[in-house]
Amino acid sequence: MSGIVLSASVRQNLLSLQSTAALLATTQNDLATGNKVNSALDNPTNYFTAQGLNNRASDIGNLLDAIGNGVQVLQAANTGLTSLQSLVANAQSIANQVLQTAVGYSTKSSVSSTAALGGNSTNLVDGTTIKTGDVLAIAGTTGIPAFSITFGASESLAQLNTALAASNLTASLDSNNKLVITTTNDAASSTIGAVSYTNTGGGTATFSATGSAPVADASSQAIRANLVAQYNNVITQISNTAQDASFNGINLLNGDTLKLTFDETAKSTLSITGVTYNAGGLGLSSLTAGTSFLDNNSANSVLTALTAASTSLRTEASALGSNLSIVQVRQDFNKNLINVLQTGSSNLTLADPNEEAANSQALSTRQSIAVSALALANQSQQSVLQLLR
Questions:
Q1: Backbone φ, ψ for residue 382 (5° rounding)
Q2: Phi then psi for 126, rounded to 5 degrees?
Q3: For residues 171 and 161, what is the distance between their CA atoms, to the nearest angstrom?
């Protein structure tokens, strides 16, 4: 074979045919794979740049699963908060029923002076039994704050009642002009402590006594005991609901913390610290029949705690909603960023099918022409051979 010598024209046509065949093979491969850059040999810059973009897109894509789980954790907690708010509202309704129920005592605690104090409903001081400067003192007990008021000139019953209101007490004069002090409905379960009237102002009235114990009304207390049972059921459900508001083992209403990573370098993160919102965490506790809901004061005390719990739930719901919005924005951002990275990679490596198809057609035509040219070159050599013969 080494002895075969090709003419310049044949050799040139053969090289052109080989080059065209190689280009045609490359074009057909581009059409088959859809890529114009299939390896670093095709275009090192584009190949490695595209590979880096695809790797980053893949890393961010792997984070999307964790971010998606984070969204579900937040939504589970939000669902729990909504249910807790409904349960607290239910408990408030029960406590309000106590305020609307008949007083739980047929007779409330009261104390009466041992001497007539004189005067009438508009003027307790008559100048003989009560003097300006005399002091009425009542020892504090559960539900009844301690009380002391120094009588002034022309002290009226209305003025005395205004002063007594803060201690959940009310005053009246009986038919004998004796002062009668009784608990209000708010403190109906309380017993008035030691009461003393001292004539430090020079009056003649003086007495010391202790209030009688209240007498419970069986029917009313049975209703209140039933309300206690209802309230305790709600409190149990508050704790159960907070415990069940978890997703994938994370419960933001049971003190857990959610940490999310948004980028492939782990520099962009968000930590969400949970709260403990069982009954105890909300400042609520079960009540005791026969001790709780006995009067308006006990119901109001429960309502105060429930109001604080409701405020805490609203505050946490607001914070949770803000965090959920942040996570969802980053979730959408990452999805769009992945699309941008993959599109950039495709622009560097993907073949244009229209262009490659046109190239393929052109190269096929060129190949046909090269074959024809090679045949013509061979014919010229054969013509020389005929002359030699």
A1: -65, -35
A2: -110, 5
A3: 6
Would you report the helix, strand and coil content of the chain in percent, each value rounded to 5?
55, 15, 30
> How far is residue 299's CA from residue 227's CA, in Å, rounded to a whole number?
11
CB atoms within 10 A of CB 230: 15
Q: How many residues does the chain have?
A: 389
For 269, what's the count of Cα atoms within 13 Å in the CB-facing half-sphere?
10
What is the pTM for the complete model shown?
0.73
Judged against a pLDDT cut of 70, whether residue 258 lies above it is answered with yes
Contacts of 200 (CB under 8 A, 6+ apart): 133, 134, 135
Q: Does the domain at residues 105-216 carry the CATH identifier 2.60.40?
A: yes
The answer to whether the beta carbons of residues 112 and 179 sit under 8 Å apart is: yes
119 is written with which tokens?
């005067």
Phi and psi torsions of 294, nearest 5°: -75, -30
211 against 39, higher pLDDT: 211
Confidence tier at 290 by pLDDT (50, 70, 90): confident
3-state secondary structure 374-387: HHHHHHHHHHHHHH
Say if CB 57 and CB 193 are below 8 A apart.
no
Q: Which two tokens stand for residue 231?
A: 């309230």
Listed by start position, the domains of the chain span: 59-101+220-340, 105-216
CATH of domain 59-101+220-340: 1.20.1330.10
Which residues pair with residue 149 across a beta bridge? 136
The β-bridge relationship of strands 135-138 and 194-198 is antiparallel
